[in-house]
Structure formats: structure tokens, C-alpha cells
Automatic annotation (TrEMBL):
The keyword Isomerase applies. This is Aspartate racemase. Residues 49-72 are annotated as: Disordered. It holds the Pfam family Asp_Glu_race. SUPFAM superfamilies: Aspartate/glutamate racemase (SSF53681). Keywords: Isomerase. Residues 56-72 have a biased composition (Low complexity). GO terms for molecular function: amino-acid racemase activity. It comes from the Eukaryota.
Amino acid sequence: MGFSFAPPSYPLNVVNDVNKNKNKLCMIRSLPSSSLVSLQFSSLPIKTDQNKKITSEPQNCNSSSSASPSYSQENTVGIIGGVSVLTTLIFLEKFVLWSSRDKYDTVPFIVCSDPTSPSSREYISNTNDGRPPSGLDQVRMVENLRGKRLFLEEGGARCIVMPCHISHAWYGEISLGSKQPFLHMAECVALELKEARFRPLEAGSGVKVGVIATDATLMAGFYQEKLQDQGFEVVLPDKSTMEHAIYPAINSLKRKDMKGALNLLRIAIQLLLVKSVNIVILASHELQCLLPHDDPLAKKCIDPMDALARSAVRWAKSAKDTREI
């Protein structure tokens, strides 16, 4: 099923601090799985612009055609949905909230999300508590994601984003041949941290950045690569932390034990902070949004999805400003 979401036509009560709303965004975690079906609104792609004009047409998310783009705004962002609908919805909330700051017109966007595709079902069913999935057909996964990218580009997207950590393991293959900017989530967060100009917390060492993620993401190595490209020292959880804090936290979430999951996540963060890291990247869909905005540890963490959303909004505003010159 291919579909797109339109930005809401009503004003958003979020202007000053998006982080204050992140717990509201993640409340749907507690919904039973049967309720998530209602989130799949339509099998028709919906495209919307800043004037709230909507057009719909039947088209498959993984199909491609030689037709001219049906959407012509120069600052349109194309969003490749993650392997779960929930992850895609959370990113959309972040993207719309960031784009609505400072009374700026909502950035036009197109979303291609197909959680019923074989590759998505296969990945989710083969993933065990964040460990690398076994028996995953990576060729089919890449073909599916590349098809979504082509769908968005042919629909008029002028910049592509992919709010899914593990999908970035195949970023090179998915982006191959694209003539549009394709933002890399790990690079976006690395560049933001570089601009923050942290100072080392330990004499004789560089600035250290911790990364909390599942084994599948850590083994792919793209967060380590992008951070090291910006001169950071990368600190990862050790085996004991993975086995006794991170995996149990994910298991607690599956049991709807939010308090237990939060306590375990706090432990994992603290174990990295005692190693003199300046900030911790929470690069895990399973663990995002757990920390309350007023938790002291939240100030020591960054969500790559926020960095990706901010980067996409900056690109869109720049593209619009360039067009208007």
C-alpha cells in the first residue's frame, strides 16, 4: 500500500520546544496492535502544498513511470517510510512541528509508506530484541526502498529523507543514481554536534559521543563512520550493557512496562556518561521518546530523527528562499 500524509490544516500548539511534545507523540506505543490498523488511512497517495490543496490518484508506492512530476514545488521533501508505521508517524510529527516554528509555512512533503511490503514484514518478523535479523533478503529490501525513492522523485520530491536507522545500512545502494539531495540521518546528527562545538570532558582526549542502538545498527557502522568523519571519538555500549540494559529495556517495552524500560535506558545512558562522553545519540526506534522532556538525562541525549527533521526543514527553507530570489 502506498500513501502519503498531508500536514494538518489546523494550527499546531507547538512553537517553543518540540521536546515537550515528544511524549505525546509516543503515546500510541501503548495502543494494542489492532488499533494501529486505523492509522493506515488510505491506499491513495495524497499530496499537499502550502495552500492546503490536495490531489489524490491511485498509484503504487513501488511503481515507477516516465510521467512528468505531478508536484512541482521546488522545496518539496520526499519521505521514505520506515519498516513500521509507528516510526514513520513519529517522524512526520517531528517534521511538521519543526517546519511550523517561527510562523513559517508548513514545508510541502510527500510520504511513501508501505508497511505491508514483504521486506518490511520480513524485517520485523526476523528481528529479535534489536539483534540482527536472520534470513533477511537484503536484495529485496534494497529494491523495495529504492522503488520508494523513485516513486517520490517521480512524484516531485526535490529532497529525500529516510527516517529509519537500519535502512541506512543500504544508503549507498538506495541513493545510487538519485539526482536529488538525499539526506543521511547519521551525517545530519554528526554535523549538528560539530556545530555545537563541544569541548573534551577529559584531558588529553577528543570530544566523545556515545551511541545507543541495537546490534543491527551498530554492526552496520554508519553512525561510527559519520561521527569519526567529524572528528569525534565514538563510545559504544559494551557487551554487558547491551545484555543487561538495552535488550531488557526493549523487552520491557514489548511487555508495556514503560517504567522498567525507562529505568534500564537511564542505566545505559549513565554507563556511557561515566566514560566522559559529551552527549549520547539515541539511535534506536525502540527506545526513542522514553525519556521525559524534563528528565536531567534528556539534556545529555539527542534523537537523530530530530536532527534529520531539522536538516530537511533547513533544506526546504533554503530551496524556497533561493527560488524567490
